[in-house]
Amino acid sequence: MRILLVQPAYDPAQMLARMNLLEPLALEILAAYCAADDEVRLIDLRLEPPGTLEATLERFQPDLVAITCLTTTQTYPVQQLGRLVRDRMPGVLVAVGGHHASLMPQDFVPESADVVLRGEAEVTWSPLLTALKSGADWHNGPGVCYSEDGRLISGNGSGLLDSLAGVRPPDRSLTAPYRQCYFHFHYRPTALVAAGRGCPFRCTFCSVSTFYEGRYRLREPGDVVCELAGIEAEHVAVADDNFLDHVEWSWQLARAISAAGLKKTFGVQARSTTIARHPDLIAAWRAIGLSEALVGFEFVSTRDLAKINKRATAGDNERAIEVLHSNDVAIWGAFIVEPEFGADDFARLEAYVAEQDIDFPQYTVLTPLPGTVLWQERRGDLITHDRRLFDTLHCVLPSRLPLDKFYEYLARLYKGSTRHTGRQLEWLMRLDPFIQSTVLQTMRTLTDANAYLLGHEQADCEPSVRQGEGRL
User: Are 194 and 121 contacting, i.e. CB atoms less than 8 angstroms apart?
Assistant: First the structure.
């Protein structure tokens, strides 16, 4: 069987996404579960010129095209890709998977895809391939979602694994032509590795627990080390949404990496509570290469943290900052800007970030994304259904301030984040030209209030083109 795997290009709305360019791990996992006699191609349209998909379809003549859709802002590009495949090659099965597609399959079937595979590739992919090759009915496979007579219908069984024991490592051979272009922070090339999946917490703005149905699973440390040993890149970005939270397992993995003599640097996502309560664990990970941590501090007060069910305190955040600073780990600090913010709230956040000396602050607008508790509570309050604006950099809920003023303050926050601390200067000096042009253009956009307003103007002007089939 000829199988084409497609990573969609960036949508212009995805400003923050351009700060990193990571390998399409989901597609590499699909490739790992193809049979030896399958002919598989992977194209990363973020790194290809226009017309690449059309040319590949013509040359390769695939039997199956699989497209990944991770975020809500990728909805329209993925819809367009699915339609293009159907127009060029009627009869070829189009499958869409990924985080957003799993949560909102109605965005894609039936108009731009034949099937959405909801959940994890290890469960959903092989049964689909087996059915297609044998001519059997694929509609009852695990995680399958399709449309029949205008109704969404799901196949049999969950699309999730009970355990990550024995999962195959991604097939990175298909992304070899792009390898030197993948970067994270100032590291190029970079590899992306998943050591676990899910999260035991239930923050109201996050859909991870919904996607994984509350499951939190970890791979065997030895399996993770084997995968790391086979990666040439020096830097590894860990894909886990909540790395280090299982403390005993984290110690086991650190010891296994050290014993294997692996020389890597690591970028991780971790909770402030874990960091604050286990400084010895952070020191151990620093010793084996931990270089930066993305930490969701979210708010500056315990009261506001409680509103989003963060299960952390302002004290936890401040202690975590101390631990990371003392271990010379760069802090990528994530903070939430509420649509209800006034001028005083923006000023308080700006002062807090400067006082705490956050190396790389990131500010996102509180957004009710599909699959979140916030979505259930606030979707009736949405002021737009345009998927491009669900990038967590635009207000999709009513704002207290006029939008032009709101974005003026948001842009000011990002201007303040480029104050060129010692860490930032070191980072800027280490950026190679390939990364530098992308990062600097992104920062220019983030510090321009008019760039945010432009997104709303485009949504107002192009609703018939971009609204898709159905409302969020």
Answer: no
